Amino acid sequence: MRTIHLVLSGTLLLGALGSVSHAQIKHFSLEEMVQKADQAIYGQIIGSRAWRVDSAVDGDLYFTTITIQGRTLADGHATTVDVTFRGGFLSETDGVFNSEAPAADDVKLGRKVVAFYRWSDDVGAGVGANVLMAAHGGLYRTVEGPRGPAVLGRGQGYAITSNRYLAQLESAVKLLSASRPNKR
What we know:
Helices cover 21% and strands 41% of the residues. The protein is an alpha+beta fold. The chain has one domain (26-178): CATH 2.40.50. The strands form two sheets. Strands 1, 2, 3, 6, 7, 8, 9 and 10 form an eight-stranded antiparallel beta sheet that branches. A two-stranded antiparallel sheet has the order 4-5. The longest helix is centred in the N-terminal third of the chain and has 18 residues, at 2-19. It is globular and about 50 Å long. 26% of the residues are buried.
């Protein structure tokens, strides 16, 4: 009888675990990232602000918006853009962490980055904003080197898997952008 209970308990446990929906993280190749993003920018983070939306439906939602000043990778146009992601703190006690947000060190003021973003009509509570593609997977640090800036890759599953010079990434993005259908 004990064996039947163990088997039944195990079967019920497996059934319950199987019915729980798991979050799915989308892995993007560079081609997929360029196809889905509205734009990619290389630039310096010149501003950052956390903000909250109070919603009767969604509850309190916290976001961080970084301002990046630089140039687009697809065509080299100078631009300044606000890019938003979920999570942030208004004070030490008023805010929320988000495991999919970029690390605080990645979005420090003055940091030079490559960011892929797209417009969303509703980031939450009906608010529209440019959102960072693939959460933290749409933001890449850069470092200066003797042959120019290098973009730091993040490994398998990310659009930029290994370190590469910005000039190489820019060439690839230009080529991929030219072959994509017109957006908007």
